[in-house]
# Entry
Amino acid sequence: MSNYSAPIRDMQFVMRELAGFDEVAQLPGNEEVSADLVDAILEEADKFANGVLAPLNRIGDQEGARWHDGEVSTAPGWKDAYKQFADAGWTALAGEPEFGGQGLPKLVATAVMEMWKSANMAFSLCPMLTNGAIESLLLRGTDEQKATYLPKMVSGEWTGTMNLTEPQAGSDLAAVRTKAEPQGDGTYKIFGQKIFITYGEHDLTDNIVHLVLARLPDAPEGVKGISLFVVPKFLVNADGSLGARNDVHCVSIEHKLGIHASPTCVLAFGDKGGAIGTLVGEANRGLEYMFIMMNEARFAVGMEGLALSERAYQHALQYARDRVQGTEAGVRGGPKVSIIHHADVRRLLMSMKSKTEAMRALAYVVGAATDKAHHHPDEAVRAQNQAFVDLMIPVVKGWCTENSIDVASDGVQIHGGMGFIEETGAAQHLRDARITTIYEGTTAIQANDLIGRKIARENGVTITGLVATMRAVEAELAAAGGEAFDAMRKSLAAGVTAVEEAVAYILATYGKDIKAASVGSVPFLKLLGIVAGGWQMARAALVARRKLAAGEGEPGFYQAKIVTARFYADHVLSQAPGLSYAVVNGAAGALELSDEQF
# Structure
């Protein structure tokens, strides 16, 4: 088993040089957020991730969560770790100060989130869902709901969930059947069943606050007739103390490929007379409100892709340094060497490293843009950043998670036969990663959102602006000169051209043949992710070049940045034209067979 150590130096580099920490720190409300404060937070988070959460990762995978007579017990050590987590204030890091939060920027919370997910992904899912529920209540809850639930959720005393999926509905939320019956006193009785509810029942906290999609008796059909309700596990008295047990119960937990320690619950509402809930916001606007949670969750799941990639890379790197096997190629009669000396192992490690650094850079840049979208004093700047965030959320979610499966699989490959043996731990990263492309919207759902709502609906305005920004970096690479930077320029130029060609096809095709456009949606999402990652890697290499020229910082770190960016350009960004070809030309082969011909 490998240890985990947060890549703090790279996190600092990305935050300061690529994500624009100084600009974020100057936003209203961030006046006390200094680089020294953030460094201290990262160091403490690393200690907690490495010292408390990481050692439980393997235990959680082996022991899992356990269900008995409606109650769920988490894995050994989980309850104490969660108490330490909440007591240390980690649940309140980015919370609103009005409700006990520390109000730190999204950019800072993003870096810390990566640590939790790398150290112990199954554990991190509990605070992740709570944060999404907090966000929905902040934006759409009543004053009474906020006062009742938010202080305890921000502090970590209570956790939150999101309840969308039902057995017959899956991702088709128009098929939701859970009912909400008005009681005439401002409350509702909820009846129905929800599946795949992460941390829907557990023993970590005294109360669990469920946000539940349901239909009112007079609701219209389809997604326009869904409302959102707060349904706590225990009702809350007027003085804030816990009252009676509500009629929501866990009838089973799922047996999964990975994330064994995260209880994935089937929840029954109303089997004993009706679960009491209150309406969030306006009736029949529940799906709109739930998307507040889902966008938060989708970004966080993208961070899981990054975090699992980092963990798998560290694991594989440690093994490659320690495992002695074979002689070095070209050295006749030489001694046995560790496998990190073998060319293809180095290629695999560089692939893992470069993809992980590209994902980190893109995700942190989106995190910083979220801060500016919410807090910048200029309305036009807020709108511009929000448009960028909206465009990139499906990319962060879809591309990072698809990458994590490939990166974790490469980690198994580096281990050879030992990677297929559970005792080494390499397989857990691959098993845990496999769910990330599925929950909170599959990659295809992200990709359809990307080409439909984020490109076709606005006629490509935001992505055209992004392409112009990438072209400016291409020009900087040309001015830098030298073999490495020329190679990066060529690959980035070809990648941006590939994006332009694919966008032109989508804009020309989506309105008249949505099926043809949709065949290429996932290839396009991967294309945009790869090119956006290349854009960030090029920016990192340019910063490193300037630092080396000025004699600043650690030469080894900056030299590695340039080499890693070069590798990404040669081995990853070079795939862009092929993906664009699939977007533009791939529909016929996918759609022509009849159902019987498959």
Remarks:
- The chain has a mean pLDDT of 96.
- The first helix runs from residue 8 to 18.
- Residues 442-587 form one domain.
- Residues 97 and 160 are 19 Å apart (CA to CA).
